[in-house]
Amino acid sequence: MSDHHYSNSKDEQLEQFRSDDKGKKLTTNQGLRVSEDEFSLKAGERGPTLMEDFHFREKMTHFDHERIPERIVHARGVGVHGEFEAYESMEEYTKADFLSKKGKKTPVFVRFSTVQGSRGSADVPRDARGFATKFYTEEGNYDLVGNNMPVFFIQDGIKFPDFVHAVKPEPHNDVPQAATAHDTFWDFVANNQESAHMVMWAMSDRAIPRSLRMMEGFGVHTFRFVNAEGKSHFVKFHWKPVLGTHSVVWDEAQKLNGKNPDFHRVDLYEAIENGDYPEFELGVQIIPEEEEFRFDFDILDPTKIWPEEDVPVKLIGKMTLNRNVDNFFAETEQVAFHPGHVVPGIDFSNDPLLQGRLFSYTDTQLIRLGGPNFHELPINRPVCPFHNNQRDGYGRQTINKGQVSYHKNSLADNTPETSTPEEGGYVHYHEKVDGRKIQARSDSFKDHFSQATLFWNSMSDPEKEHIKQAFSFELTKVESESVRRQVVDMFANVSMELAQAISANLGIEPPEQGGSTVTKSSPALSQENSPKKPDTRKVAVLIAEGFAKKEVEGVLEGLEKADADTDVIAKTLGKVKSDDGGELEVDDTFYSAESVLYDAVYVVGGKNTDSKFRKEAEYFVNEAYSHYKPIGATHEGKDLLTVDMKESSGVVVSEDMKNFGKDFVKALAAHRHWDRKFYSFN
């Protein structure tokens, strides 16, 4: 392998495929220069278009085929480039080269996505989020294809089509889009109770993240680390966002989907363009193979977590996302992930859902990307050389030379030849397998409720309230009374408190029996225990004519030092005048700026505040308050707050400007202030 040249940068590897058309001549796809691009070739000025107009036919044919089939799930996504850096050598556990030494860097491409909706759906539905990472390693591409939730709805891959059919828009009328609040989804849940744990996650705040930069990622399945000596450890993968894990509230999510359906992708794009590069630490949970059966759950069950208090997460590296794509279609839309794309040192377990995915993904790419050569698309190409006897097929780019395309051979000295493990050849872990052919599931997979209760026990009071509200909202949309009843009875096995709250909101009799004896909790599951920082939080600054320029600029400088972002919002665009005749540039107006687009509000007002500004600002502030967001008010802005607001948590009102900025930044870092006790159904 010493003759291989590896590119240190995915940028370098992609460069040959990029084009810059500025100053270039228009040509056909064959390179022929075009003399006319406004009129098709006709038989006379008013005659029919001629078939011999090859430029017209090429242009139109390409246009007719510009769209590829969207993904059945994870259709709506956004992709970004970045880099992964290892914290330390993991050679004790795995021979994977990209984890072999401290400081080793590997280019990556990450695609975030929603699961249910079409490409045209909105960014903030109640849904799981895809979190797929392609590592362009020197040993080949490694794909860690996960979600922002560590478990899934089913235990066996054979049930995946059933789950997706149930969660997608109902076939008789193709509604609702990107939503689980309908009969077929909840009928599936009630009759496939292995989904209980995942449903708890889906009804929690985890399903409506504040930002793609502020959500965890999980490999979901149990994989294997295998070291150079052939010793195996079971492993689960985690992505921990440096900014912490945070969410919006449901009323806010619904409004965001109307005000800005692209909220998440815009947030991610702007953060990277502004240099606020999202960072995620890669963590692993490791269990020695000989300890496979020491837990009270089956470690191969994809509906179960390994509680972090029982199996700690070891942080082994950090990923920094630092470059947006150049072309959405060529990169984000054409990227092809597969959990079977592994490198030496990473192998599979017998998780039956993972085993199903290992078949499904290649099959999916064949139909989406037009054939077996999707690996040759620039975004999918490895940075290391690849040689094999595969030939032809749709979209083939490699021009293979020579007459030999088979193994073994003598005409080409038996090349390309296989590699020994010492040369980097992949060898599957030699797991002993002994058993009868059977269609069944282990009894150790049959406990569907204990970890659902563990999740419930781990939630803070506000998080529990949000789960109750989510179930109530969803089941209110279910038309079948029988399905509603079945779901309530099912989740009585998780928590009687939860089941009784749902039944009360649905107007049905509470379950007569149920409850759980599980008392264990896992603090790591609650977002309340996640890091809280003011970094990259967006603050709306509401300003009117005659504002106190010197003091307000001091507050804005303090927010900037705290790495928060501010937008000045006024009645009109342009500039707003201060009390000393100075001016401040306006970023947005009440016509298009909404409180749901911001993490906090700083209301200033001004000496020339009029009734229109007051009306708009009061609505802005009241909505932010109802979503538990931090609110700061000084000068004339204090008059826009009610007495109850001024006395509430997270509302900073100060006559002393000396401490206001510091107190407001502290409130901003807290993200939400749930102890306002303002629990509405929203």
UniProtKB/TrEMBL annotation:
UniProt keyword terms in alphabetical order: Heme, Hydrogen peroxide, Iron, Metal-binding, Oxidoreductase, Peroxidase
GO function terms (MF aspect): catalase activity
Reaction catalyzed: 2 H2O2 = O2 + 2 H2O
Residue ranges, compositional bias (Polar residues): 514-529
Regions crossing the membrane: none
Pfam (any one): Catalase-rel
Domain Catalase core stretches: 27-415
Compositionally biased intervals (Basic and acidic residues): 1-24
EC numbers, comma separated: 1.11.1.6
Cofactor(s) annotated in UniProt: heme
Keyword Zinc: no
Keyword Signal: no
Region of interest called Disordered, as start-end residue ranges on this chain: 1-31, 507-536
UniProt record similarity statement: Belongs to the catalase family. HPII subfamily.
Primary role: Decomposes hydrogen peroxide into water and oxygen; serves to protect cells from the toxic effects of hydrogen peroxide.
Protein name, UniProt field: Catalase
Organism this protein belongs to: Virgibacillus kekensis
